[in-house]
Design goal:
The complex is a heterodimer of chains A (about 575) and B (about 350). With about 575 residues, chain A is mostly helical. Chain A has 24 helices and no strands. Chain B has 2 domains: about 180 residues, D-Maltodextrin-Binding Protein, domain 2, CATH 3.40.190; about 140 residues, 3-Layer(aba) Sandwich (D-Maltodextrin-Binding Protein, domain 2), CATH 3.40.190. In chain B, about 40% of the residues lie in helices and about 15% in strands. In chain B, strands 1, 2, 3, 4, 5, 6, 7, 8 and 9 form a 9-stranded mixed sheet that branches. The N terminus of chain B is likely disordered. Classes of the chains: A mainly alpha (about 575), B alpha/beta (about 350).
């Protein structure tokens, strides 16, 4: 609140009379809110790591958390997992982006949709599906293999390091695809033509011209994937424990077992936080160099490259990825959701609608979790869009003082992995004076903090693309900033805003890491409940719940895409 | 602690006259119900039952006592305890009644003065062997189950089935055995303590070397065996018998060393804001016909004197020797077995 009163005072010295402008109050309020949202949990986390539970300064938490061989091994394992996932996502995402953006591969639209579907599918649901598909003894793929070849054992084991990396990669690769495609979409064919005129073959052109132009984006995406993989909790909880791999996130969660050791958790999180900040700085530098090459948003002709018979190879690869990430998992989930006991397979007498009846009419917990998930995600998406556009507008048009600082604040939560941010949020809001623990509001606050950067980035790019003349016209005719926002900016950017809404909504429905410590009995979400139910081995109910969630998300995405277009995930102008 | 059968029958006769049925408890119960109605609801953190059964119990209670809703929160013992502590640290006492499988949690909570002292009249209806779980009356046994051996009947014939706990580390079952992680499951913790008593510290290394599949709950073991992902496991006999009755390819047997008895304590939190609803719930949980009926239907082992177990499931009196860690053993040894387990399995 101090910011709210301070800022107008500063401004009023420069231009008296502006205090009466309601826009100034609106923006000042937003900035105060931003500082509270972002600085509070992060500072609290750092503060806690240097303190004992009793409140004195100490490095003891670091000594305990990092002085244990098992804990250090967990950090090393996480780094290895991050690297493995990054390599796999590059192998999945880059060829698909090339194929869809630059080649004459058939079914490019369908491929794009299948990537979108992989993005909509929550990671933890994918993990459940893959446990059913590739469990070493009873997985349906393994049984199919044994049935066909008469072998004694199937070849797949999801409960292994590479099994874990594979499942995570299947549901994070859309990020690589989106970044790479966005960059490739801007490479003009003229450059490739120039290479061809100078005697380069198709592959030489692609290798020496097209790909290098997209390289900064690809590396940028790879860094984000790496960070996402080391901070993921859901899939590791489901797969890493049976696979006997101790990871940083499962270790972090064990600090939350009794006795609750928030200070140690905070200390253990610091190396990961530091690594994240360094990697993100690296990413910024890489992406900043993009202006150096001739990638521009405007002009230039773009023709798909004829790649001959290779298009069929690429198509087969795209189909395989679609099969592995979307089709097989969905089929298995739908089948499990219709089974009395999933282990019995497609036997007669094993079919039932009972699991759906259970979640809709009997298990209140499940129904509540679905309702909570959808409503919290909607609320977060709405708040993110509104705050995002206001902050983007205020900083881009320099309505408020210190636009760079505000921009930095709005983007800072990106640097904090979800699980670690959750610890900070827990420390900041769970107890008095806020006492938000167990309420839906805490989840919305947490999600808003976590995903605001996405909204601000997308909105800033969109505001930059607007010519200020239109806004100035309103101002000349006596309209205030709020009129400009409501009557000019919002209508013009409707598509972008709907796109941002869908993006944030979908990400929220999938979010587990942030939610896991923050949900209470009356604010449980599907993601957290999945973890609770999976430990009972109750895959049939779980599958039914997952199918319902995917159907709801898909409907929202489909409705939104009618307004925002199918490229809503792409950050225009980045 | 263990009584013989004759003694037991005598107790059964005596307990017919217990306060619950003797008439003077009814007005007390009615008064409790009136007060509970004003509170309107209670939140029940529940571990021993599966979520279906827990929710069924919640619904049945509300049907018996209209106007008192039960918010069922079902998770594993460790998660439930973690949330409970988080709640308390955050100053949000969500939980009114806490029913779990890890005795050590109750000893800890009692030590921190976080439990309400309350002895339900219904305790008198229970088997004497399970009464007086806490001599001071802060927590009581609410239900029990036995950890026995379970196996997949499609993969293992009855003749080839394991007979002893030590069979789990036999190379015959390499890669197809399962056990639950003691850091996640209270029942697994009790089981680990008993295995350590029988076979020493080295048992866990042998279990790991035999490529035993780790689950996060003993309930999970049953589904893993039904699916065929594993062929044999240590698991809850009640749930295995229930699943077998539904036609699933699973069977359960009592190991020759005896099953591990897991008593699930229940208690009212001192921080409860609905003390009457909580007390009513405990009376119902420990002594009502509803819970005895649900225990029978769901293949539970009732603690009521003279209660029958479902077909194919041994009751308290017919399982032979029972292995059961005492509350002090649970408190001292759980961290130790978790550590041994982590050293053996790496997680």
């Amino acid at each position: 609140m101090s910011e709210a009163t301070l800022t107008p005072a500063l401004v009023s010295r420069r231009s008296p009379g502006r205090l009466a402008d309601p826009a100034l109050w609106l923006f000042s309020f937003l900035i105060a809110l931003l500082i509270l949202l972002v600085a509070n949990p992060i500072l609290r986390l750092v503060w806690d790591s240097f303190h004992t539970a009793e409140g004195g300064w100490s490095l003891q938490s670091y000594a305990v958390a990092l002085g244990n061989a098992r804990n250090l091994q967990a950090l090393v394992n996480s780094l290895a997992l991050g690297a493995a996932v990054t390599v796999l996502t590059l192998a999945l995402g880059v060829p698909l982006a090339l194929a869809v953006s630059r080649s004459n591969m058939p079914a490019r639209g369908l491929t794009h949709l299948s990537v979108l579907a992989a993005f909509v599918m929550p990671n933890f649901l994918g993990a459940i599906a893959w446990i059913l598909l590739a469990g070493p003894n009873a997985g349906w793929l393994n049984r199919l293999w044994m049935g066909l070849g008469g072998a004694e054992k199937g070849p797949f084991n999801i409960f292994s390091f590479w099994g874990l990396a594979f499942v995570i990669a299947l549901y994070t690769y859309p990020l690589v695809y989106v970044f790479t495609k966005a960059a490739l979409d801007l490479v003009s064919t003229e450059l490739e033509d120039a290479a061809a005129i100078h005697g380069a073959g198709k592959f030489q052109t692609m290798w020496r011209v097209t790909l290098p132009l997209a390289l900064p984006s690809v590396i940028g995406a790879a860094i984000l994937i790496f960070l996402e993989a080391i901070a993921l909790y859901g899939t590791p909880a489901l797969i890493a424990i049976p696979a006997r791999i101790n990871l940083a996130t499962t270790q972090l969660v064990s600090f939350f077992q009794y006795p609750l050791q928030i200070e140690q958790a905070a200390a253990f999180a610091m190396p990961i936080l530091l690594l994240t900040v360094v990697m993100l700085m690296l990413q910024r530098r890489l992406l900043a160099r993009r202006g150096f090459v001739s990638v521009s948003g405007k002009g230039g002709e773009r023709r798909p490259l004829d790649i001959g018979l290779w298009k069929w190879v690429l198509l087969a690869y795209a189909a395989l990825i679609g099969l592995l990430s979307v089709v097989l998992p969905l089929v298995i989930l739908v089948m499990a959701s219709l089974s009395k006991a999933w282990g019995r397979g497609l036997a007669s007498g094993n079919l039932t609608l009972g699991n759906y009846r259970t979640i809709f009419f009997e298990q209140v917990t499940v129904r509540d979790a679905i309702v909570n998930t959808v409503s919290y995600s909607m609320a977060t998406a709405l708040i993110c869009v509104l705050m995002g556009i206001c902050i983007a507008y205020a900083t881009q048009r320099r309505v408020t003082p210190f636009p760079t600082v505000i921009q930095f604040l709005a983007l800072a939560p990106v640097a904090v992995p979800g699980l670690i941010l959750a610890i900070g949020l827990y420390a900041a809001y769970a107890g008095p004076p806020f006492s938000l623990y167990g309420t839906g509001l805490l989840i919305v606050v947490a999600f808003t903090t976590r995903f605001l950067p996405i909204a601000v980035t997308a909105c800033a790019a969109a505001v930059r693309s607007l010519n200020p003349e239109l806004e100035e016209a309103v101002r000349v005719l006596g309209g205030g900033r709020i009129t400009v926002l409501a009557k000019v900016v919002l209508p013009l950017l409707k598509k972008t805003l709907v796109g941002v809404f869908i993006l944030v909504f979908v990400i929220c429905t999938k979010e587990l890491s942030t939610a896991v410590f923050l949900t209470g009995p009356s604010s449980r979400m599907v993601s957290v409940l999945t973890l609770d139910l999976s430990e009972q081995g109750n895959y049939e109910t779980l599958a039914a719940m997952g199918v319902v969630l995917v159907v709801i998300t898909t409907l929202v995405v489909a409705a939104g895409m009618r307004v925002a277009g199918r490229d809503f995930m792409l950050r225009r102008g980045g | 602690m263990l009584f013989n059968r004759r003694h037991f029958t005598a107790m059964a006769g005596a307990s017919v006259l217990a306060p619950w049925t003797s008439g003077h408890a009814q007005p007390a119960l009615a008064a409790l119900y009136e007060a509970a109605k004003k509170e309107g609801e209670l939140t029940w953190y529940c571990v021993p039952q599966t979520s279906e059964v827990a929710e069924k119990m919640g619904r049945t209670f509300t049907a018996r006592y209209p106007g008192v809703k039960v918010n069922v929160v079902r998770t594993t013992a460790q998660v439930a305890f973690q949330r409970l502590n988080q709640d308390l640290k955050a100053g949000r006492p969500n939980c009114d009644v806490f029913t779990s499988t890890d005795l050590s949690h109750y000893v800890d909570l009692k030590g921190r003065n976080l439990l309400m002292k309350n002895t339900p009249a219904a305790v008198a209806l229970q088997d004497r062997r399970v009464q007086n779980m806490d001599p001071d009356g802060y927590f009581h046994a609410s239900s029990c189950f036995m950890m026995g051996l379970i196996y997949n009947t499609a993969k293992v014939s009855a003749a080839a089935a394991p007979r002893s706990w030590s069979d789990l580390v036999d190379s015959r079952w390499s890669g197809v055995g399962a056990a639950a992680h003691p850091a996640y499951s209270g029942a697994a913790g009790a089981w680990c303590i008993e295995m350590r008593k029988l076979y020493g510290d080295g048992f866990f290394k042998k279990l790991a070397a035999n490529k035993t599949h780790i689950g996060r709950s003993t309930i999970d073991a049953v589904t893993t065996v039904i699916s065929g992902e594993c062929s044999v496991s240590a698991g809850p006999m009640s749930l295995a018998a229930l699943q077998a009755s539904k036609g699933n390819p699973i069977a359960t047997l009592v190991p020759k060393e005896g099953p591990v008895l897991i008593l699930s304590p229940t208690a009212i939190m001192a921080s409860t804001r609905r003390p009457h609803a909580a007390r009513l719930f405990l009376e119902w949980q420990l002594g009502s016909d509803d819970t005895a009926r649900i225990a029978y239907e769901e293949f539970g082992v009732s603690l009521r004197v003279g209660a029958k177990s479902a077909p194919g499931l041994p009751g308290l009196n017919d399982a032979g020797p029972l292995l059961a860690p005492t509350p002090p053993q649970m408190v001292v040894q759980i961290p130790k077995v978790i550590d041994l387990w982590k050293d053996a399995f790496g997680v």
